[in-house]
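Researcher: Hi, I'm a grad student and pretty new to this. My advisor asked me to get structures for two proteins we've been looking at. I'm not sure of the right format, so I'll just paste the first sequence and hope you can take it from there.
Model: That works fine. Here's the first sequence with its structure tokens right after it:
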Amino acid sequence: MYRDKLASTPVILIVDDAIANVRIMHDAVRDLGTVLFATDGSSALQMVSEHHPNIVLLDIEMPGINGYEVCRAIKAAPHLSDIAVIFVTSHDETGYELQALALGGVDFLQKPINAATARARVKTHLELQLKTRELALARQDLSDMIEHLPAFISYWDIDLKNEFTNDLHGRWFGVPARAMSGMHMRDVLGPLNFFSIDVHIEAVLRGENPTFDLTFYRDSGDLLYGQASMVCRVVEDRICGVLLLITDITERKTAEISLYDEKERIRVTLSSIGDAVLATDAHGNVTFLNPIAEDMTGWLTDEAVGQPIETVMPLFDSISGHETTNPIRHAFREKRVVGMAMNTSLRRRDGRLFQVEDSAAPIRDHQGEITGAIVVFHDVSEARAMLIKMTHLANYDALTNLPNRMLWHDRAEQAMQVAKRSGKHVGMILLDIDNFKSVNDTFSHIVGDNILRLAAQRLTSRVRPSDTVSRQGGDEFTILLPDLDGIAEATEVASKILSAMMEPFWVDGQRFDLSVSVGISLFPDDSEDQDVLYRHADAAMYRAKQGGKNRYEFFSTDIEEQLIARHMLERHMREAIDQGQYLVYYQAKVDVDCAQVVGVEALVRWKNSADELVSPAKFIPVAEETGLIVPLGELVMRRACEDARRWHERGANIVISINVSAVQFEMANFVDKVSQILHQTGVRPDLVELEITEGVLARNHVQARDTLLRLKELGLGIAIDDFGTGYSSLAYLKRFPIDVLKIDQGFVRDMLTDPSDAAIITAIVHLAQNLGLELVAEGVEVQEQAAALRNKGCRIMQGYLYSKPAPFDEISELIFVA
């Protein structure tokens, strides 16, 4: 509207019932804009409505509607109230003028009309209107610009309470501008974000204007990188407040981090490969050497940068001794990858010669222009050196430089033959690093490889020179102990290994605390066959893992028997799925206040071919290790959802809790599979609750939170099972969408006799109440436990006091009788 008025010709309306006065005023202002006139109040109001004039020259005394009433009507309409009204009258009493001003008039002309005065007054008010509208437009433009700037602009008083922000809708910190007014900066930004600002407040109050980068956490948990500037406002030598500007640099920062990570990966890669790598700019001046290139040329990177390629890497014909052209020059000239000439020698800085070969390639930018080149080369000085290298590669592990499986088998066979003649023993130690896979998956394979290298060094340093440490693959190592007098020597080595591997591993400034599980078998006591001896050591290592890890075990006959039994159990479990031997039992959850069954927990049971129930403690761990837990978990979920629907159809809204293993939860298609089961069974989603242990959430925070949010979108409830026994941080209770905490039965069992367990339960109850979470106490077996739990504030119980796990029909009787 303001821009339209600024661009248009002013409109002046003269209202007077005397034509002579109209003519005088018309002649006075006709060149100042479009001039209209009316001779009565009704006509004047109609013209005001149609033409929206800038100024109305309004006679006070007119027949019908007088000037005061016309002015009052104009000012009463919001879309007309900006019209300037100049009253015209023959009265010179002060009262008339005051009344005119009180009604909104901006000026007063006295009759008889003085044309020059009228013109001057109208011109002045037109210019004033123009300036006013220009100022309003500038203010509006400034307001729009500030509001839509991709930055957070705010002003805070001396007490750091907000007086202004451009964040009208709370996009930055979830607090709209209207609600933010008067809030303390800490309450707006959050304690963690405020701390990042607060450390600079003192400098601002000293008159400094710091600019610094910040890392913020939004309410969603997402990271926001910002660049902040702070200015202290001083009025009359007194500090009034602080202006804070935060610019979102997340995209730039993410790009910088990605670029840095990529450069670091490239640097590490180039520094780790076995060939020499040298790079130049477009003029052939050196820009980079990897460690191998430094070693082969005798030049350090700092010394070589800027030197011509011929100075750092002088090449000669091995036969004639004549200097040859560096392949980088050929790559520039031919604009392609070129190979090094045959019989080429590199003269090292100290004068030594190496025969070298490989290739050079030009580097192009995004426009295809050559910006430099890289030459990759290696030493081929002696055929013998190459043969040794090939032999080494065939017999040693490339990552750790330890003997590989082939060389280890050869040495083991020799040691066993010697032991047969000497009557001594050969020890075979097999070990792997506990939980190594999670380190590899959580951090990176580069970190994992570095840990394996460090582990190889430690193992080698703890054994005798005659012993052989070998890497069999992955994180599995074997140690061959020839010429042993007895078991005591093997025990001593195993103890040293455990001690060495318990020391912290440091990789790129990060600390990793690891342990190993060790299995030991002896020749000829355990076997006279190398493969069987290895298998026995593997069985002993498995026993060490089952026994709690970070320990060693010797092979014995009972270990082998258990190993065979375990394989048989796994085979029978697989057959049980095909034969439909797995059953779903339910244990009731009771609201003790109303003595009603409000939910059940689904529990898997296995009735084998002999019609015997197999203990879950026996087959669930095997299912977890072998991956059978995935089809087994799907079977339980599908059947539980079907039963929940059946209860609902009979009029009982029973919430079924279903345990989800870590293996299931971390599957990429887990949420899709759950959604499919809900759809196929027709169960109401709010009648299904998934129980997840704390350890699952600790493995990968970001993935776990995303999975839980997607499950919540399906309408499911989320419960934390065995609360208080796992993940040590309580932060996830705020970050993750959790509905229910289940108090572990271990606390309930001894709560009447152990004050510590009682105190823990009290803390869990208070925590749940403050966070608005539902509580379920597991393992309630006696009335005294139930009463104590109810007194503490927990009203939903689960345990043998109310029901044992039972099939669908039996638990249905309990539900509908209750």
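Researcher: Oh nice, that was easy. Here's the second one.
Model: And its structure:
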Amino acid sequence: MRRRNGFGITLALAGLCLGVAATAHAQDAYRLPPQDVVDIVDAPLSPFTSLSPNRDLLLLLHREALPPVSELARPMERLAGLRLDATTNGRHGPRSVVGLSVIDLATGEERAITLPADTGISGTTWSPDGNSVAFILSRDDALGLWVADLETGSARELIPSGINAVFSAVSWMPDGERLLVHLTPESRGEMPERPRVPVGPVTQEASGIEAQVRTYQDLLADPDDAALFAWLATSQLALVDTDTGNAEMIGAPDFIYSSDPSPNGAYILVGAMEQPFSYDVPWSSFPDRTYVLDLDGEEVATIARQPVADYVPIGGVIRGRRSISWQASHPARLTWAEALDGGDPRVETDQRDSVWAQEAPFTEEPVEILRTEDRYYGTQFTEVGQTGFAVEYDRDTRVIRRWLVDFADPSVAPRLAEERNLQDSYANPGSPETTRNEFGRSVVAVPDGYMYMTGEGATPEGNRPFLNRVSFETFETQELWRNSGENLESVIGLVELDGSAFLTSWEDPVTPPNVRLHRDGDWTQLTDFANPHPQLNDIQRELITFEREDGVMLSSTVYLPVGYEEGDQVPVVVWAYPLEYNDAATAGQVRGSPYEFSRIAGTSPRFFLTQGYALMEDATMPIVGSDPETVNDTFIDQLVMSAEAIVAESVNRGFGDGERVAVAGHSYGAFMTANLLAHSDLFRAGIARSGAYNRTLTPFGFQAERRTYWEAPEVYYNLSPFMHADQINEPMLMIHGAMDNNSGTYPIQSERMFAAVKGNAGTVRLVMLPYESHGYRGRESVLHVLAESFDWLDRYVMPEENPMGPEDDAEPGAAME
């Protein structure tokens, strides 16, 4: 009798537990925020712009609003760090660009390019003469090659299907009459099918060699994955005539990830993966071979061969030849870098890299061009002889140096053109304008002995973009134009290479970016893109600066909600993302503009303004340390210090009451949010999107942390909010894409963090978005995130009285319903 009663009680308890579990793990339907927010989300997007190589046409790439989740739900192959669509043999994901048009800069006339309906456009590339663009046209089951004549506005299909777009698929030959294309070879056979019964176990082995691999996702898991990836990644190179569409096959099929014709069009530089593939690293670290083909498909030379790159130290580079590319200013000459420190940044040495060059037919010995004190990051060649600006970077000091090097005569001493802390935005000289040289290659333009530099122009009052003229001989700078007034205007490109005519993107807080043509001191507006949400024009915004306790300057853009009146105290949302700096001076620099258009789209935190919240957006949370190896040792202290200053400033300026404050962020900002809830009582609630919370799951470094878990276990422990989940006594909403493929932010990070807070009687809600990755792209997902976020803050932050009770007396989990 007792046993029967006991069994009955057990069943009853089990049923009760199942009922609770069902509620806790319910599959909710997608929710909608208020209709006015839905209307803003669905508002049309402005197109992307691209200036033609000969500077007489402006291409507009028209974008689609958010796709439905059903597009994200298409079958996906998660292989070698990639997400692929086996139906099309390209990348998985919804289309973005859906139409093309072109503006004639001489007349201002806009011509639409006629294309099939319900298709997507990708891989758009200009012809060398700027009269045509080639692109990939995607349908539900095929990727085709098209070319558009911009003079007539007509487009033609060259190849209806069979493009292999797993990697870069299309580039122009220098003659402008042919395209180098990656095709799916007919000889590859049917797609491999995964057997129901495996052949055997998956085995890996280490042999005593240090191999510190970051936490990657979507890696190959077994031989069946490797076979499918090999099938998808196999490409056949072909030269396609743009008049006839005829394709001439070049060489044999291979696992090709890159192909680049030489400047004179006589050779093709090929990068191809080699088997066996690795289960530990993504495709970019697979064994590979770099070789040169002639146009008959014959292999001329093997330039480099690399084993699997799982040995590269954190922040290091591969051994041997790397960054192999054509010298843009030479008919057929390759350049590359080689590490002098074994690729290990921990090695103390006076010189880290050497730079080499070798001419076709690659039978002579390579020539050493220069050696660099720090890591070499490539060269941007100019139109003057064989000169180029070579860049080196010191990861410890964050100092970048740019040297003008003569590749034709290595005996000529390089000249220093730039030296600064990479994070010193005030000293940023900008980027040089480019032109096409005799080979159709993009090089730095130097008309009449001057370069023309454009940049964001960061200042203590906010960004003021500029156009400068810089002497090629002395590097002396003359300012030609700078943005002024209550607007933000930045240079798109030069229409005349002497700087007398140029295109800009102009915007102000209530006007979206539009294109202007400046000529002879006057301007003409070429586009008229409408404000997608004029109902929000009354939002007030201000770029503010203030100081934290240790003297480091902070900044934030403050937005006040619709209908705000002077003296109102409203609930505040702090949106931030921590960054590391070597010194307080660069950490305190102002970045951004008070005059940019207040675009509200996607899951932007600016949507909180529609619900009565003030927003402190891009509130700086600098982590300052002169030694980058130990900068994270004071991460928590500096994070809390910044948060205290931010909340205090909202009170000082009168729009916040210091009580109704929420903190929110995405990715590392989510990590920040959880840490601030655990280590301070400054906030009523938090919203953490797509974060990582247990740093022992990323043991070979994260963000700017260079030490491994075994070298600094206390840092990994102290910085992991998972380890302090029992201290989170404010409500936290967690949102994560169920298919997040960002390194380190596995969905399990949020799942285990939710369980930790819940297990310690905290108030927490976890929303896993089907088919979404690190960012959220599906329309239903975006609207659901906004609805959840509004509800969370309306419940816990909006009320005058804290629903959780007084801070000192609050019991974890004692939320009001």
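Researcher: Is there anything I should tell my advisor about the second?
Model: You could mention this: The CA atoms of residues 683 and 719 lie 19 Å apart.
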